[in-house]
Structures are given as structure tokens and as C-alpha cells.
Fold this sequence. Notes:
This protein is mainly α. It has helices at residues 6-13, 18-37, 44-53, 58-68, 73-80, 87-93, 99-130, 134-164.
Amino acid sequence: MTEASDEQIAYAREENTVLSQQVAINNHIFSSAREITGKDIQTFNQLTEHLLSDPEHDKAITALIEKSGYLELWRLDMQKNPGSNDVEIAIKEIDQEDWLTASGQLEDTALTNLERYKTNLFFYRQQYQTKQLTYLEMHIRLYEKLVEFAKKMLDVARKLETAAQ
């Protein structure tokens, strides 16, 4: 097993992780969406359903999300975990004896994410055919980027596996 670097230990101890930022951003979005719409919105599914049935707040909700940092969370995760999108970094950060295990874990994560992102992308594209909301356009662009990110992660996993053999 690889010993954690000082940077990895600091990241593990960090309180302001990507996940904690995501929770704070989501809470801000839903709280603000409740103020804007007057509806008890707790999830993105509820927010999407509301905007599809009543697009009056489409631009305000889209602007809220764009300003919140929500659309940049994936980039933060990529910066915190550069080995998941660059095989050269992965090779340097992971002991050679762990490459095969790490490649399997990375591949599992990439495939799970890819399936989820493609499903969401399909949904938002389907909905956009019915209603051309800026909210839906924003999500289409986001999930297109996330699909590409997951494909890159899968490529890194497979290259790491090849290097391990």
C-alpha cells in the first residue's frame, strides 16, 4: 500500500472539501430557489419539475446556479485528484505494486459516473426538445463536460492497467 503524501494527508484533514462545498452550494441554491419560487424545493429533481411546469423563473434560477459555483465543482474535484485525469500523475503518485488495484477502482468509478452522466444528459436533452429552457441548456452543457471527464478518467484507468502488466 502507498503511504500518503503530506499533500494527501492535508487534503484528508481539510474541512473545506469538494463535498462540503457541494453541500453548501446546494443548500444555497435550494434556499434561494424557495425564495424565488415560493415552492418547497429541496432537490434538483423538484427544481427541474417546477421549471418544466412553470418556466417563469427559468432565467433567475439559471443565473442563481451559474453564480453559485455549482457548475465548477467538477473542476475542483479534478484539481484535488489530478491522478484521475492524467496517467503520468497517477503513475508518479501510486506505487507500482498498486497500479492494478488503483486502475480497477478508477475504472469502476469512471464507468459508474459515465453511466449516470449519460443518463442525465439524455434526460436534459429530451426535456429541452419539449421546452427550450436556459436551465436545461445549462445542464446539457454541464453533463457534456462531465461525460468527457468520465471518459478521460476511464482512459487513465485503462492506461494504468496496461502499465501495470
